[in-house]
Structures are given as structure tokens and as C-alpha cells.
């Protein structure tokens, strides 16, 4: 099982414990709801999860964080537990001819009852992977999703829930051309404060990463983030980041903007109160636009009485509940949790290719498949969730004058050939 698979399993487990960790649900009611439910578990396939197992995951997460949710590495790692080719063909034939539409869990039990396999020798995961590989796994069951709120709601405590969204902004002159901007923002459900919002020249995840980091630094950590099904909010990077920070990421029903009414109302307020200021005095750059917008948020929006806040301002409501705010203890965690992820095999010259660019890593990684984390500024090598090195962009001209140490593979090959010569 590779590191990416272990992380996907940990993310699934976090999804199950999140309502308990953030006290969204009462344990007894929650376990009754999950009783008998079949989940599509990464790597393992269709499984039921016992309440006791979820409680153990919850305890492990509280003690040791996201890493504790990853499956432990096999003691016999590197050994083969695969079926023989003949065994695989036989099982696939049975599946096609007799049990094609049967759930994999039941099919696995049938194989054991018929004496085709022994439970101690062939695991459910082995059969599940075999059938998935040959597209015989049938329809996927719905995985667990956090409960979606369908009724009108409002939390009475700050930082319980932040609504998130993206809106189309005004056109601004950039690099001599008029280009469209995009506003990425959060709003606190209780106080209507805007933890952070900024205009960008694209809808890419880089913008969401900056807005989320700034919001967490300025206003503390929310219990939940409530977003739509847009690509950046469904990104694997955001899901991992929220899991590691202890934040529940909840998504709305598709094509249901009314479920995020508060942030939709914020965008309307911006359109009617801030954009008219740009018509009479246009911003000359993206930087100027964001500077003026930030000033408007603090001096106008946050300081004006809000009808749904009993005449109080968002600033007043948020300040009155400072004792409920949880700030990050270690700000440095934000430098790694929002990094994008990738896997690459290091070539014999100690390089990797990423986004059509060549990078150099320490020679000790030659021949290995490594875990990379990156943003628009740097690329890092990670092992077991920790940063161990940085990948450096290759400068061909400089490298032509650098004396390199020989590859360990080249040394081994030379020694082997010398030994064969001596033997002759």
C-alpha cells in the first residue's frame, strides 16, 4: 500500500469522525444512523464500519492527529500475497458466469464457502483489487458525506461555520489588457464578518489557498467550511488540509446556490456598494483593487449595522465572542498543509519532471518513487508526512560545469562487471 492510498484511507476515516470531533452530532444518534450502512472504502472496497472502530479512530486522531488515521504499514511489506495467474483467471470466470451483479462482500464469502479460496490465505482486499482491475466490481455504493443542511439556519457562535464561494469580479487592466477578475471569499455564518477575501486573475486553487491561509491567521479556525461543488473546493489539497487542521469540509447540493444564502448576499452587497465606487474611480491594477477592497471591508462593511444582527455590526458581534475563537498554535503548519501533491520516480541522473519542468533532488533518492509537495514558489520532497528536501529547478547551462558524484547504480554496475572480468 503506497502513501497516497494510506492518505486516502485516512481521509475517509476523518470523514466519519469529523461530526464527532467537531461536536456536530450526538454519538448515540450518530452511531445508530451509521449502523448497517455500507461504505465504499478506498483500497478495501465495500465495508461496514462498527461504532467501536469509529470511536478508536476518533481517539487516535485526538491524540496524534491526521497521521494516526493512516493504516499501519505491513510487517511483511515487500512480500507477495497475490493469487497465481491461474487462480485469478478461475475467480474472474466465476464472477462473470455466476455472480456478476453480486456485491463484492457477498461474492468473497461465496468463494470461501465453495472452497475456492481460504480466508486465511486470500484477503477480501485482494479479491476487491482483482475485480476492480478487470472492471468487474459493479456499481459503487455512495460513500459517506457529511450531512447537508437543507433548511434555513444560523449559528449563534462565531467560527462554527464559514461559508465559502467565488464570484466574478470587475475587469481590470493587467499587462496592458483588460482582464476579468475573480473574488474568493469566506463569511462567518454567525457574525457576518469576512475573515478574508481577495480578487485574483484566475479561478485556480492558488487563490483559495492564499485566502484560506490569511483567514485562518486573522480570525482563527472554524469548525466547518461550507462550500459548493466547484473544482477548487473539491480539490484533494483542500480536503487534506482541512483534515489535518481538524476542520469539517461540507459541500452543498449541486446547483443549489440558495443553500449558501449568506455569502450570496455578501456578493450582492459588494456589487451594490463597492463596485459603483470603481465606476467613478477605476482601479489601475489588481493590487490597487485589492487594497481598496480591503479598506472598504474594514471601514464600511464590517462597521455598518446589519439587519439580521439586531442592529449590531459584524465587527461588534465577532469582538463580543473572542473567548470562543481558536487560533492556530503553530502558524508554520500553513506552509505545508496547503501544498499540492504529486508522485514521481527519480531518474538515474537525480532529476524528475514536473509540469514540463526539470528538477533536481538529492542523489540518495535515485531510483525511488518520491512524494512531492508543491506550490507556485517551491517543490519539496516529503517522507512519512515530513519535509526532508527541496527539489531545485535544473539550470542546464550551470549543470554543464558541475562535477557530479557517480550514480550508486553506476557504481554497482561497474563493480559487477569487474567481478565478472576477474572471474574469467
UniProtKB/TrEMBL annotation:
Integrase catalytic domain sequence ranges: 142-322
Domain of life: Bacteria
Name listed for the protein in its UniProt record: Integrase catalytic domain-containing protein
SUPFAM superfamilies to which the protein is assigned, alphabetical: Homeodomain-like, Ribonuclease H-like
Any matching Pfam family: rve
InterPro entries, per database record: Homeodomain-like_sf, Integrase_cat-core, RNaseH-like_sf, RNaseH_sf
Amino acid at each position: 500500500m503506497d502513501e497516497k492510498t494510506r492518505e486516502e484511507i485516512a481521509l475517509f476515516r476523518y470523514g466519519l469522525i469529523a461530526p464527532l470531533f467537531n461536536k456536530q452530532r450526538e454519538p448515540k444518534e450518530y452511531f445508530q444512523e451509521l449502523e448497517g450502512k455500507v461504505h465504499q472504502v478506498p483500497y478495501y472496497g465495500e465495508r461496514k464500519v462498527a461504532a467501536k472502530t469509529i470511536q478508536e479512530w476518533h481517539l487516535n486522531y485526538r491524540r496524534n492527529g491526521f497521521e494516526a488515521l493512516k493504516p499501519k504499514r505491513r510487517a511483511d511489506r515487500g512480500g507477495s500475497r497475490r493469487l497465481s495467474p491461474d487462480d485469478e483467471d478461475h475467480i474472474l470466470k466465476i464472477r462473470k458466469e455466476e455472480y456478476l451483479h453480486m456485491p463484492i462482500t457477498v461474492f468473497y464469502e461465496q468463494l470461501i464457502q465453495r472452497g475456492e479460496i481460504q480466508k486465511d490465505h486470500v484477503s477480501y482486499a485482494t479479491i476487491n483489487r482483482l475485480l476492480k482491475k478487470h472492471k468487474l466490481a459493479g456499481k459503487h455504493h455512495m460513500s459517506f458525506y457529511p450531512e447537508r443542511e437543507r433548511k434555513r439556519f444560523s449559528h449563534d457562535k462565531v467560527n462554527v461555520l464559514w461559508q465559502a464561494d467565488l464570484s466574478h469580479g470587475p475587469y481590470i487592466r493587467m499587462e496592458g489588457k483588460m482582464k476579468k477578475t475573480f473574488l474568493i471569499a469566506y463569511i462567518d455564518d454567525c457574525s457576518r464578518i469576512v475573515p478574508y477575501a481577495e480578487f485574483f486573475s484566475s479561478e485556480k486553487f492558488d487563490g483559495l489557498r492564499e485566502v484560506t491561509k490569511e483567514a485562518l491567521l486573522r480570525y482563527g479556525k472554524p469548525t466547518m467550511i461550507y462550500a459548493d461543488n466547484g473544482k477548487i473546493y473539491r480539490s484533494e489539497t483542500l480536503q487534506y488540509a482541512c483534515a489535518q487542521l481538524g476542520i469539517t469540509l461540507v459541500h452543498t447540493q449541486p446547483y443549489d446556490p440558495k443553500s449558501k444564502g449568506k455569502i450570496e448576499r455578501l456578493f450582492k452587497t459588494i456589487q451594490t456598494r463597492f463596485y459603483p465606487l470603481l465606476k467613478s474611480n477605476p482601479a489601475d491594477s489588481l493590487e490597487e483593487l485589492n487594497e481598496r477592497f480591503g479598506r472598504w471591508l474594514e471601514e464600511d462593511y464590517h462597521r455598518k449595522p446589519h439587519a439580521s444582527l439586531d442592529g449590531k455590526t459584524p465587527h461588534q458581534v465577532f469582538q463580543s465572542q473572542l473567548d470562543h475563537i481558536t487560533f492556530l498554535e503553530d502558524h508554520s503548519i500553513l506552509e505545508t498543509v496547503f501544498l499540492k501533491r504529486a508522485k514521481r520516480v527519480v531518474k538515474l541522473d537525480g532529476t524528475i519532471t514536473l509540469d514540463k519542468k526539470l528538477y533536481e533532488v538529492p542523489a540518495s533518492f535515485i531510483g525511488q518513487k518520491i512524494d512531492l509537495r508543491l506550490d507556485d514558489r517551491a517543490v519539496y520532497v516529503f517522507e512519512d508526512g515530513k519535509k526532508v528536501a527541496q527539489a531545485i529547478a535544473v539550470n542546464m547551462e550551470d549543470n554543464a560545469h558541475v562535477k557530479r558524484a557517480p550514480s550508486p547504480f553506476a557504481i554497482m554496475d561497474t563493480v559487477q562487471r569487474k567481478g565478472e572480468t576477474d572471474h574469467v
